[in-house]
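User: I'm preparing a small set of examples for a lab meeting where we compare how different chains pack in three dimensions. I only have the primary sequence for this one, and I'd like the structure in token form so I can line it up with the others. Please keep the answer compact; I'll paste it straight into my notes.
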Amino acid sequence: MITFLTESKSQVIELSERALITFCSDISSMLGVDMECSRQEFGNENIKDFKEYFGDLVAVTTVKAEGILKGNFQLVFDQQGIFILSGVINMLPEQMIWENIKLGTLEKAKDMSNVFTEVGIAMVGAWDRVFRKELDGYGSFTYIDTFIGNLWDKTEKKINLPGNEEFVLVPYQMTIGSYPSFKCGIIFPKAFFPDLSATVSEQTDFAESKEDSKIIEEAAEQVIEDDNTKEPPEQEGKVTMDEKNDDVAEEVNALADTDDNEAHPVSQAIRKMAESPAASAGEPITLEERSGHDAVDAILAIYAKDIMRKEIVWGSPDDNVEQTIAKMQQYGTGYVMIGRDKIPQGIVSKSDLTALLSPYLRPEFAKWRKPSDDASLKIRIKWIMSSPVNTINLETLLPEIMEIMCQYSQRAMPVVDQQGKVQGLVTVFEIFKGIIKHFYHK
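Assistant: Understood. Below is the structure token output for the 442-residue chain.
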């Protein structure tokens, strides 16, 4: 059997390319521009090779990986990439972007640092969306910081990249609209691809077993609570935030402590139920007919409209992370729908935000907090939301709901009517509560 070491390098590089394509697609759809990337030949390189490829002035975003992949890797852009990408995202006049391409200086590049911080975090969001769906054992990617300047004289001090080691450089050519192509690349340390003694299948079995236990424990705690849970009040305009650091830290801490962990698939127990023969038993069963069937058939005849939560918290794509955290705390929810007039453009979960935020925003790490840690709170939700949104309809049966959740590794499915407007939300917890209530109230 092939070990993880043999497969991991090619798999990570392939998923990274898909993540970069996803990022380009995000920029294209958000800003109405054509953005494309193409991978070049890659291999083991050293700092001298990097300099020859990228030139003197670069922007480097450092990302921390946790889970089956551990360690830091870097996303690098050359000088033209700095001015083109930041100029397009900042919506600068085309003439000014061309002027910066030709005459841009280090000082002008550093003026773009705030924009490039947002670029880096948006890229981390794209990486997270791809890897959590495709890589067993994936934990999280966390934005660390962005460096802009001449990297090559003290690389270890500036981005913790030792000058005497070889790394895996995966280079790309990027184009945006009619602007010149520019260079970017991903730098992986060799240790990023670990030599694990366990095989991929063994790792997967362990992860699924651990996840099964966690989901069952969470579901049991949820069901014990009073069925008449407090309904959230109607939203009135945008939610404002107290800018005090201790309040932000408290909300981030609460968010992390109540993470829905959407990054993992639904449990194997639900998968087995979805594969039951009763799932394909001909015509749908009416509510009146359910009592005449055995327990499994009756449970599998539950519709989305029977178990969905009807109270949906909405946000705008231009809301930032800080505002979205505030909404989650105010309304006691793990999900915020993004869109308007009940038409979904995206969805963001607690786990999306926890994976993005720096751990130094939590109170216990406050003394090490830096301005770059606060920057993640200002990132707009449109860069990190899951989009497009996978939905189900009011008449979708429970087996199909569970099958879709398994297929897309999601714990929450918006329920839409015939006009595509969101009427409710089905989460793993609604499924558990619906099943258990059936037995209690049969």
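A couple of notes for your slides: The chain is about 45% helix and 20% strand. Confidence is low (pLDDT under 50) at residues 1-6, 196-244, 258-293.

User: Perfect, thanks.
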